[in-house]
Amino acid sequence: MTKFLFIGDTHGQLDFVTAAAKRACQLNADLIQCGDWGFIWPGKSELPELSAMLVTMGVTMRFIDGNHDEHPVLRRLCNGQHDLGVEIAPRVIYQPRGSVHEDEDGTRFLFCGGAPSIDREGRVKGKSWWPEETITAAEFKQSLCATGPIHVLVTHDAPDYPPGFSAKGSLRYQALQELSMRQIDALIKMHSPLLHVHGHWHTRATTHRGTTRVEAIDCNQLDPADLDNSVLLWSRE
Questions:
Q1: Strand partners of residue 212
Q2: Comparing C-alpha atoms, which of 51, 127, 138, 43 is closest to residue 90?
Q3: Shortest CA distance to 2 belongs to which of 25, 24, 29?
């Protein structure tokens, strides 16, 4: 079976992804990133450098958007393709919300990025915050209606507050956050994946919802060599 190395929020940190890619190369695994990707940002794009590194390593990265990504650019790069992954540069594949990927060993992935930003008021629309950050009704419906079986669900947000977290922020944010978590929980209930992996909360935790194992993956570490909380190796056996 194919091995997959899931990584948490990368926030455009090339050193962190390089360290993760080295591990993926050693393990003969594909990289799957859980949102807040960050390699395309207003006035800055490290996509060419990221792609060159992955090509050199011989590692493919699939990624979803988070809340801190430049959504309009990612949507333009999709060129109307929403059902499958889109290779936006060599070895770099964007998975739009509701898209499905079936690996060569038959493992099927459903991807659904997006989440609300607790720090929205401190950001600038169109420069560091975009209204497209949250999952729309149409994107949720597409994800809910995805053809199964779905073995792995990859999202940015969680189906509930991770251990040690609770509601905070403005009432407006709390309402958006609770809606986002209900959407993810509904996807788990609909598809009953073996595994659900998410980022967003910058923490590492393992929980279960029914028969689904839920893995929260931490974000990029300040020390790129410290990967253990920010990656998860998995294969369907």
A1: 209
A2: 51
A3: 29
Please, what's the largest Cα pairwise distance for the chain? Answer: 47
The Cα–Cα gap between 26 and 20 comes to: 10
Nearest alpha-carbon partner for 92 in 40, 170, 145 = 40
Counted domains in the chain: 1
Residue 111 to residue 27: CA distance in whole angstroms: 23
> What is the structure's pLDDT at 79?
84
Contact 134, 192 (CB under 8 A): no
Q: Which residue has the tokens 């991807």?
A: 111
Residues paired with 86 in a beta bridge:
94
Q: Specify whether the CB–CB gap between 124 and 167 falls below 8 A.
A: no
- The tokens 């253990």 sit on which residue? 228
Distance from first CA to last CA of the chain, Å, rounded?
7
Q: How many CA atoms lie within 13 A of 120 on its CB side?
A: 19
| pLDDT average, residue stretch 165-185 | 96
| Strands 92-94, 86-89: pairing kind | antiparallel
Which residue, among 153, 165, 147, 150, has the nearest Cα to 204 in the 3D structure? 165
Tokens 């053809």 locate to 147
Q: DSSP secondary-structure letter at 125?
A: B
Encode pLDDT of 192-205 as tens digits.
999 999 999 999 99
Domain range for 144: 3-234
